[in-house]
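Quick review question:
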């Protein structure tokens, strides 16, 4: 596999993590309630930049033999350093018209931007787009309130505009779901609200193996180690923290592999309880 694509088998499911790119965020956006000195030390001790966080975008391609599924679509035209999903699919031998199911964990621009092409038309013409009904309702309401997000207002406005415009383009292909749903055999969408009202996690299961894709329920391994550290992009921070804990407890108890869209590529690994949180063990 070329750079930017990481392939593995989960039972009978052929999975490939595809890098869409990355974006750098000011560290306080991702850790708004972290004590600044502790955050600085945590980043410095990992030899990471202390003022900015390089946040990868990782989409998940699942080939079942009958179905081609893409979980999240990356940033599309929303930044210069992301938007590689079509090129990555190409090296994996997949054309956009081959994809028949797109699961959108939520409608932030880094997850739905790649669902449309440069003209704003659906990029995957033969796909049904799965997302939560609560997500659809929130963003298509006349004025989605992003007031609780601890990021600049200008960015909030852009996020709302991108979601509204993109969802409008997808409206003929969207299949909203209202509760935990088996989308295909072995591919299950699980409500995981807090980051957004209709945020979904995705559980893959095959032949006794499991992979829990957290979406944005955790956006950096430090959120596992310090579970009280919030994410400035979480709309309902307390609910997001509770959701994160519940998903991580389940993954640890059931020894699942874990994926998170913004974790260091290839964004898959396992977790183990450590101190008051969990330790991230990257790799497949
Ligand atoms: Zn995201």
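Suggested answer, residue by residue:
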């Amino acid at each position: 596999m070329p750079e930017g694509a990481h392939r593995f088998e989960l039972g009978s499911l052929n999975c490939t993590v595809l890098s869409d790119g990355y974006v750098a965020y000011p560290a306080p956006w991702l850790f708004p309630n972290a004590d600044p000195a502790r955050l600085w030390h945590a980043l410095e001790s990992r030899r990471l930049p202390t003022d900015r966080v390089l946040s990868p975008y990782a989409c998940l391609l699942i080939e079942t033999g009958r179905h081609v599924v893409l979980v999240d679509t990356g940033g599309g035209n929303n930044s210069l350093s992301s938007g590689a999903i079509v090129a990555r699919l190409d090296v994996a031998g997949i054309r956009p018209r081959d994809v028949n199911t797109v699961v959108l964990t939520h409608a932030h621009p880094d997850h739905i931007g790649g669902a449309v092409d440069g003209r704003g038309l659906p990029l995957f013409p033969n796909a049904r787009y799965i997302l939560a009904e609560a997500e659809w309702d929130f963003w298509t309401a006349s004025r989605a309130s992003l007031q609780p997000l601890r990021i600049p207002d200008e960015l909030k406005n852009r996020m709302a505009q991108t979601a509204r415009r993109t969802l409008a383009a997808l409206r003929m292909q969207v299949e909203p779901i209202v509760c935990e749903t088996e989308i295909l055999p072995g591919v299950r969408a699980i409500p995981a609200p807090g980051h957004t009202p209709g945020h979904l996690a995705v559980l893959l299961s095959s032949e006794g193996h499991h992979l829990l894709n957290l979406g944005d329920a955790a956006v950096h391994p430090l959120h596992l180690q310090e579970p009280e550290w919030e994410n400035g992009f979480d709309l309902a921070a307390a609910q997001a923290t509770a959701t994160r804990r519940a998903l991580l407890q389940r993954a640890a108890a059931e020894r699942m592999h874990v994926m998170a869209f913004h974790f260091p590529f290839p964004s898959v690994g396992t977790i183990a309880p450590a101190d008051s949180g969990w330790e991230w063990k990257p790799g497949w």
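Why it works: The first strand starts at residue 5 and ends at 10. Residues 153-170 form the longest helix (18 residues).
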